[in-house]
Structure formats: structure tokens, C-alpha cells
Amino acid sequence: MLAISEKYHTIGLVINHLSNISGISINITMTGKEKLYFLLMAIEDARDITPSGHPLLIDPTNTLNRKYSDTELSQLLIKLEKDEKVLMMLKVPITTQLSRDEFKPYESSIDGCWYIKLLPSFDGYFDKIQHEPEYFEFTGKKPAKALKEEIAEQALRPTGFTPKSVLPVITSAEEVIKNFSPQNYQFVLKVIRGILSLIDFSPDGKVAYQLQSPHGQQLINERRLLDRLSQMGLLSHYGEDGIFGIVTLGNINIEILKKVESGLTTLVRPTINPIPPIAMPEQSDNAIYEPVKQPKSKPTETMLLPKEWSFNLTIKQPVIEKSGVPVFTFRTDWSNKVRYFDCLWNNFGQRVSYQNLYEYKRTQKYPTEKGVIWRTNKRIRDEINDLRSDPGFEKLPFCIETSKGCILTFDPKKNCR
């Protein structure tokens, strides 16, 4: 049974005992908010025991201890799906489906369970709920993230800190840039841009930053970079959700980070190698001059994703946006295409191996058998080719190459190979 306050726990033991010996469903009287809290805790518990990639099963009898009428549970799940947009209902008990018209479009479940899928926004929503005073009164426990916040704040406080103090600015933009070597400028710039892009959506000063790197050394480096920025006093690091790779950040020094972004943008700006002078051959008065053909000098470029473009994964159907306006929507049955494109987007301008694409945001490992490797790579190429041949995607100024891995680039003229 889920942990609730001592008052409700004691009553619950008595009622559950009466329910067990009588076979009668008896509910604790809860307020509307308390019913929401209890359901969210049940969903969180169900997630802890559900294998990755499987839907969560919510059983009104066993999971929820028969604490809800069919109407109450239906309304709460509709609210979480339609209003809060933190989950998707996949299957609905057939008895509920037959009695309520709004559930007819969903699949039926004959076992009486609700089948749901959590969206990435669920954790931020549940964290916000856990900080409500009524939630603390109902559960009798402090949310784990609140404890992490206190520890993070204390680590950044100078000696003699008082509640009215602010985090000390211990560095300048120039000093921040000096902490990184030139070969890492682009990586640092990508992370800082990712943080700054979330500021407008942070009414309380905190942002939910999703790690951008695929599994491996890059992901380790990204986590260490966030820790380093925290140590410099540029932000507070409140901890990471290990399932979706979402890090909660706060106390962000926007002014300094914008200066760092501007400085790094200047440093990684594309440069063009000078073209050597044309060699002028010796010639007589009657000689016909033919200039020596010089090989074309290729510019040395650092690929940067234009600021106005973004890839939004936080909604039911992921979209590519330009200046906040959706320009391409991924279909709901494109799970692999979305995952591969997300990996390429987060490694924009860099060639990503088939192994990194295959293992991105999944626990299954890349195969090692020679024949299986070839088939796996071909399936990835087929998915990518299917995406880039889509009429809507073809109109976008993006190219995806699939030779020796994949690379996503920006090309307004669409001169893709």
C-alpha cells in the first residue's frame, strides 16, 4: 500500500482489515486533491516495477485498493492526459468503454486494467505536485528532490550565508571560456545554448534540461560540464531523473551565460582558408597564356544549428519547429525514426555511428555478429531513408547522410548527397 500520512495510514489499516474479512469494498473519504495525489503515487509505484518499453498497468482493485469510483478514475486520467499532457491512455477497461462515449476511440482491455504510457513531462509535473503543502500533509514525507535542492544550495553558499543572500558570482565570461580547450568550444556552446533556450519557459527560475548526448563518453562529459558550471556559481544543479535524462537546474546566471555564448560563437565561427595566388608561367611575346588551374580550397567549417530551429519532444507527437512554429510533425508510429533523429539532432554536424544510433535511449546493446550487424545497419538506414524521403521532411533545409554512420546538416539549398 502506498505511503500516506499517519492519520490516513491508521484508518487505512482498519478499513483494509474490514474489507478483507467482509469482502466489501470500503473507501477512505478523500478530497479531490488527495485522490489526485494517491493516483500519482500509484502511477509512480507502477513505473518502478514495469520493464522499460512496456505500458504501465493501473488496476483499480489491486493498484488503487478500490478507492475510486469508475467516474472518478476516468475523470482523473482524462485530466492527466488532456489538460496536463503528462500521460497517454493506451487501453481502457471494456466496461468503462461501453458506458462512456469519450473512451470509444481507445483500445479495449478485458482484464479491467488501464494501460497508460508516461510522457517526459510527467516527472516535472509530479515534482511540482510534491512541493505543494497539501501533498506533504497528505503523505507525511518530504519529496526526495526537495532534499537534493537543499544539498545543492548549501554546496554553493559562501561562509556566513543568510537566507536573503544570493549566489556569489565567482567568475566572468572570459574566465569561464579559459576553463575549456578550443576543441571543446562547440560542445560547451551546444550545452549553454540548450540551457538558455529554456529560460522563457521557467516562471519559477528552474528549468528541466534534457541531456543531449548519446550514451557513452559524450554523455559523461555533458554531466561533468553541468557540475562544473554549478561549481563556478553559474547555476544550481538539483539532480537528474535517471529514466529520461532530465536535469533540474536553477539560479541560472543568465547574464554571464549569454556572454559566454556570444564569446564562444565568435571563437567557433567558420573560417575560410585563403586561396593561394595563381602561378604565372614565364612566357614569350608570342606565347598563348593559359592560367594554371588551382585545386578548389574547401572552407573549414564548424557546424552550428541555427538558433531559430528546435526539435520538441515534450508533446504527444514530436515536432520540428522554426521560431516556435511547428513545420514538421512526426507520426505517432515513428518511434525509431524519432529516436534516431533525436540522436542526430543532439549531435548536429557530427557523424554518429550506427552503434550509437542503435543504443541511443535504449538498454539493448548493439549486436556483435557480423551478419546481424549488417542487417541492423540496413534497418537503421531504411528508417532514416524513409524519413528523409517524406514529402514534408524534403521541404526542410536539413540533410541526412547515411554513409559510415549518419550525419545531420543544415543546407538551405538542399544539396544533399
Short description:
41% of the residues lie in helices and 13% in strands. It has 417 residues and is of the alpha+beta class. Helix 12 (335-346) packs across helix 14 (370-388).
Structure description:
Helix 12 crosses helix 14 (370-388). This protein has a four-stranded mixed sheet with strand order 1-4-2-3. The longest helix is centred in the C-terminal third of the chain and has 19 residues, at 370-388. Residues 1-27, 156-167 and 271-302 have low confidence and may be disordered. The protein folds into three domains: 6-129, Arc Repressor Mutant, subunit A; 143-158 and 170-267; 315-410, Arc Repressor Mutant, subunit A. The radius of gyration is 28 Å and the shape is globular. The N and C termini lie far apart (58 Å). It has helices at 6-22, 32-48, 70-83, 94-99, 121-130, 133-139, 144-156, 173-178, 185-196, 217-231, 254-267, 335-346, 354-359, 370-388, 391-394, and strands spanning 56-58, 87-93, 107-109, 114-118, 207-210, 236-241, 246-250, 309-312, 319-322, 325-329, 398-401, 407-410. The chain is built from 15 helices and twelve strands. With 417 residues, it is α+β, with helices and mostly antiparallel strands.
